[in-house]
Amino acid sequence: MPESLRPSPSALAVLSLLRAGPMHPYAMQRLIKLWGKDQVVNVGQRANLYKTIKRLHEAGLIAVRQTERDQQYPERTVYGLTEQGHETGQRWLAGMLARPRNEYPEFPAALSFAMLLEPAELAAVLAERLAVLDERLAGVGGGLATYAGELPRVTLLDDEYQQAVLAAEAGWIRGLIADLRDGRLTWNEEMMAAHAVVPPS
C-alpha cells in the first residue's frame, strides 16, 4: 500500500460501505446521504468521492467487480472490498476511535486572533454563530428523536457526538457573549500592543 495513502473520513466510509457488498460510487454517495452520514463525511462533490475511490483502487484496497450497463444511466463500475481493504478499514477505524487528532479547524484559529475585533464586534459575530449552532442542535436533536426508536443506538453515535459537541460549544459561546457584554472580558489596542513585543533572539 502506498505510504501516501492516509486514513480519511471519506476513505473509511468507502471501505466501511463495501463491507455490506460490492457497489458503484453513486450508490455509495446515496447511502451516505440516506443514512445522514453526509454530516460527518463530505460527499457533496461526487468528484471527491471518485478521487478517494481511485486512490483506494490503486492501493489495492478495493477492486473492480463488474461494470453495469443500463440504457437509462451511464456505465457504472462496481467495486468490492479486497482482503487487504478489509484489514486496513478495521485498522483505520480502530485508530480513528482510539487516538485524538489535531485537525486544525478554522474556529480555534480565528479565536486566536479574536482580539483584532472590538469586544462589541466579537460579541455580535459570536451571536451569529450561536444562532447557527442552535439551529444545527435542533436539527440533530430532531433526527435523534426520529430514529432513536427505529435504529440501534450504535448507528447513531455520530449524531450523539455531534449533539454533545454542539451543545458544549453553544454553552461556552453563550457564556463568552455574556462576559463580553458585561465587560468581564475586554481589551484595547494599548493592552494588546504591550504583549506584541517580540523578545530578542
Could you explain the architecture of this structure?
With 201 residues, the protein is mainly alpha-helical. Helix content is 57%, strand content 9%. The protein has eight helices and two strands, in the order H-H-H-E-E-H-H-H-H-H. It has a two-stranded antiparallel sheet. It is elongated and about 70 Å long. The protein starts with 8 loop residues before the first helix and ends in a 7-residue tail after the last helix. The model has no long low-confidence stretch (mean pLDDT 91).
CATH class of the largest domain: Mainly Alpha
Work out the number of β strands.
2
Name the poorly predicted regions.
none
CATH architecture of the largest domain: Orthogonal Bundle
Q: Could you estimate the helical fraction of the residues in percent?
A: 55-70%
The figure for the number of domains is 2
What is the strand arrangement across the widest sheet?
1-2
What's the CATH H-level superfamily name of the largest domain?
Answer: Winged helix-like DNA-binding domain superfamily/Winged helix DNA-binding domain
Largest sheet: 2 strands, antiparallel
Number of helices: 8
User: What name is given to the CATH topology of the largest domain?
Assistant: Arc Repressor Mutant, subunit A
Order of helices and strands: HHHEEHHHHH
The best one-word shape is: elongated
Q: Measured on Cα atoms, how large is the radius of gyration?
A: 23 Å
Strand content: 5-15%
| Average pLDDT, all residues | 91
Short key terms for the protein model shown above:
two-stranded antiparallel sheet, Arc Repressor Mutant, subunit A, 2 strands, mainly alpha, 2 domains, 8 helices, 201 residues
